[in-house]
Amino acid sequence: MPVLKFALTADAAGQVHNILTCLGKFSDSVFIEGRHDRLVLSALNPSRSGYASFTLDKSSFFSDYEFASHRGRVDGRFTCQIYNKALSSVFKSRLADTRGGDTALERCEITVEEEPYKVTCRFIVKLICRHGVTKTYKLTYESIEVMQALFNKSAAHNVFQISAKMLKEYSDYFAPKAEQLDMYAENGRVTFTSFTEKIMDGKEILKQPLHTAVSVDVKDFEEYRAEEKAHIIISVKDFKAIVAHAESLGVALRAQYSHPNRPLQFSYTRGGMKCEFTLMTTGSSQDSAAPRLTEAVEWRADTRSRSAPSTRSESRSTEMPRSLQNQPIASRNTLRQRGLGSVTRATPHNSDPEADSLFVPLAEDDWRWEPLEEQEPEGDTLGWDASEEQVSHPRYTVL
C-alpha cells in the first residue's frame, strides 16, 4: 500500500520543478516530509548556514492528495531523502512541451511506496500527456530523519518587505564571483554591497577584491522597520537563489531578523505554497547585545508609488567596502569559516565527549554558546527540530 500519493496539474508540476531548481542551489539532495495535511520539500546547504523549505498545502496546491500514516512513527510522518537532479530531470523532460506540443503534460501523479521487507523503496512519477501518452519514472529514495530549522519570529524585531522583482534587478549588478552580501542601513537608505575579499599567497594575488554597492531608499520598500548602522552579512549565492524564485512568482519578499550574528529568515507565500529560508548571518552593529528601537527606521508604504531611481556604484580595489572597514576582521570572516555546526563555549564546563556536537539539548541550561567576539542576547536562536512537536519532543539549538 502506498504511504503517499498525490496528483499535480501541469501548472503545479511546473511549480514543483521551480522549487527543486531553487533547492538545488542549497544542496544536491532534497528532503521530503509527508503529513496528512501538507507536503514539505526542504534542503540544507553543506556548510549548514542556510536552510530552505517549501510547504505545500493539501487542499489548495494538489488536485488530489492521499496520505497513510507511517506505521513506524509516533507522529505518523513520512520522511525521506532523494537526489535532486534525478527528480528535477523528470519534470524538466516534459515541461518544455507545454507550449502546445502533441505530448504536452496534462497531469502528474506521484506515488511513494515503502516496503519494509524489500531492499529498494520506490518513488514513482507518472507523467500523463496528451493523446494518451504516459511516461513512468521509478526512483529510489533513502529513509532519513528530516530536521526543521526553528526560528523565533517574536524576537526578530527588524523587518523589511520589498518586491522580489526590484531585488532581482539590483542583484543582477552583483559580480558573478561575489561571495558575500552586506546589508547596511543609514540615513534613510539601505545599501546592498556584494564583495569578495582579497586572497594572497605570499606576494601572489590569488583572488582580486571586488565590491558592488546598490543604494536603495527606504521608500522603495513596502515595509521597513530595522535598526540603522548594523551590518547583516549573508551568502550572495543563497540570496540570489531566493530572489530568483520569489521573482518568478511575482511576490514580495519579507525578511525578519534580530541583530547581526543571529539567524535571518526570508519568507513569502503564493497559491498554497509557503516558502521560508533561514540563513545564518555575521556582521556587527553599534550595540549588538541590545539593539535600541529608537535608532530604527520605520516605513510602511501606503501606495505603490516609488521614489527616484536608486543609485549603484561598482569598483575594483585592494580595500574593503568603506561600510565594512570598521567591522572586526573576525566578524567578516566568520561566515566562511563557520557554518551552523561550529560552536564556541562561552564559559568553562566539565569535559564532555560530545562537546563539539552540532545538536545541544535545551534542557542543559548551564551550557551557553556565543558567536565569536559577540555577547549573546537572550531569546533568538537557530534551532533544529526533528518532529515539529515542540512540547512533547526535545528541541535542539545550534549557533
How is the secondary structure organized here?
Blueprint: E1 4-9, H1 10-24, E2 29-34, E3 38-44, E4 50-57, H2 58-61, E5 64-67, E6 78-83, H3 84-95, E7 105-113, E8 122-129, E9 134-140, E10 148-151, E11 158-163, H4 164-171, E12 180-186, E13 189-196, E14 199-201, E15 204-207, E16 210-217, E17 223-227, E18 230-235, H5 236-249, E19 252-257, E20 264-270, E21 273-279, E22 282-285, E23 296-300, E24 311-315, H6 329-337, E25 360-361, E26 382-385, E27 396-398
Antiparallel strand pairs: 1-5, 1-7, 2-3, 2-6, 3-4, 4-21, 7-8, 8-9, 10-26, 11-17, 11-19, 12-13, 12-18, 13-16, 14-15, 16-24, 17-23, 18-22, 19-20, 20-21, 25-27, 26-27
Helix pairs in contact: 1-3, 1-5, 4-5
Can you describe this structure in just a few lines?
Belongs to the rad9 family. The chain has 399 residues and is α+β, with helices and mostly antiparallel strands.
What would you say this structure looks like, in words?
With 399 residues, the chain is an alpha+beta fold. It contains 6 helices and 27 strands. The two termini are 41 Å apart. The longest helix has 15 residues, at 10-24. β7 (105-113) and β8 (122-129) form a beta hairpin. It has 2 domains: 4-146, Proliferating Cell Nuclear Antigen (Box); 151-337, Proliferating Cell Nuclear Antigen.
